[in-house]
What we know:
The complex is a heterodimer.
Chain A: H1 3-27, H2 35-52, H3 57-79, H4 84-103, E1 114-115, H5 122-140, H6 143-153, H7 155-160, H8 165-191, E2 193-194, H9 201-214, H10 221-236, H11 240-257, H12 265-281
Antiparallel strand pairs in A: 1-2
Helix pairs in contact in A: 1-5, 1-8, 1-9, 1-10, 2-3, 2-4, 2-8, 3-8, 6-8, 9-10, 9-11, 10-11
Chain B: H1 2-30, H2 37-53, H3 58-79, H4 81-84, H5 90-111, E1 116-117, E2 126-129, E3 132-135, H6 136-158, H7 160-170, H8 172-177, H9 182-208, E4 210-211, H10 215-220, H11 222-230, H12 235-256, H13 261-275
Antiparallel strand pairs in B: 1-4, 2-3
Amino acid sequence: MSGYLESLLVLLSINVILAYAAFLPMAAGQLNLGVAAFVAIGAYSGAYLSNAYGVHPVPAALAASAIAGGLGWIVAFPILRTRGIYLALATFALNQVVQGTILNLNVVGGASGYPVPAHIGFPVIAAFALIAVMLVFVLFHTRFGISVTAASDDERVADLMGLSVRGLQSAAFTGGAVLAGLAGALYAHHFNYIEVQNYGVLFSIYIVLYVLLGGTQTVYGPILGAAVFTLLPELLRGSAAWRYVIFALLIIAIMSLRPQGVVTGALLRRLLGWRRAAAGAA
Amino acid sequence: MIEQQIVNGIMLGSVYALVAVAFTLAIGVLNFLNFSIPGLFMLGGMVTWYVLKAGFAWPIAALLAIATGGLMSLVVERFTYRLMRKSSHFVPLVTSMAFLILLENIVLVTWGSDLQRVEVPFATVSIRLGHIVVAVPQLIGLALAIAAVACLDVVLKRTRIGRGLRTIAEDPDTATLLGVPVGRIVPVVFLIGGLFTALASFLFSVNYQQASPFMGEEVALKGISAMVLGGMGNIWGAILGGLLIGVIETFSIHWFGARAVDIWVYGLLLTILFVRPTGLLGGTAPGPARM
């Protein structure tokens, strides 16, 4: 496989994991603008483990994912006390605070970036992405998926039906942090260099936007969003900035014409219905 | 030394205050967190730089920057609030984020990513009060900021448009029933927000003699902290919050270095959201269920 194709597929795999990192809290009705904070935590803790302690990169990535998840679980307590716009603001502030803190940690290079010599190749990253996607799929075909959707549709009714709304919200937030941390550690070990300046709130916004581009109603939307976002620039092959211009225009157009995102439950049912009708005719 | 830091902080804070007014107006009246504001701020700063570089006088630069901000804000209105009424509440927020990305990248493509030095055509005069030095342009900026908010206060309290705005803030549906022309009054919120933001960016780029495609994220996002600190939806709170954030920033630079600023400014935002989400002056904060 050529180096170009490989790094493209690596980015696609990592973006798919990131998309689900943003999708999980969003499915529970939380607009998390702090995804990049957990990506940074995963990237830096994974890199630190393999640099300072010589941990093999794959267990280091898993540990980094667990660290990001643990921190996510802890901050979920105060953050989930807030709702709606306040939650978006709190996660936004969290992102800035985490980024500022890492910027001042000289042990991981501070503002000058952090090289990571240990390497994780494409097959491992692709396997991780596949496992992550399958986990989320399975999760959303069990009781958990239905409960999370119910809790975000109507918290009070879900509560009355005996669901632990706070537990579900906390699980979704933590799950997002686990995936974000994993994606961060994989990125750090594949590209061998991380810079905290890249994990700002704008990065969080990009992740959230490509999930919304695909649609948040079904588990299939985020894959489409991540794929479009990764592959579109390759089709354009212009300057890096132009692709973001086009991406932003695309988002504005889609939100104006199809505010639920491209892939929705109704669309899937219609497509599947057509397929069944065609089979019946044949 | 301490007094000088406070004065510097207040001068910087007047920029945050103006941005915070734009944020607070959108939240207070429309219940809408307008993420395009940092983009408008950056646009105003870059237009100021470009027009001054092209050799025009500074009043022309100010006028063009402010006009650009106002017009762009009206474009944002077409694609955000117009659609808000018939779709999920987070859609306008998302579209406004897309506008931030759009504006930033259009400027990147057009003018590159360098930090530009703004050539200010007037000499920087400063006055001395004891051992405190105050730059006159900054003092004028602060006065302009307070005057602009005082005007806005009068408009909101005394005029027909202001009454309409306050009715919409209470309940858009009832406002429609009462015959308030919601569709014509809402653009006013965006226009005022755009003008305030662009005024802030003109003052910032002239006083600190710099502009860059990233100045929106670096400077104007702090307006959100200022807004929450003062109390969401409260315009005098936005002024108080802005000035306080400016002072906090200069002191954290003084004590902990420039790299620690974000920890203090946004750490404070996080703390307020957890402890006292209505802010210092108690904003007319919107209902938590809506995005």
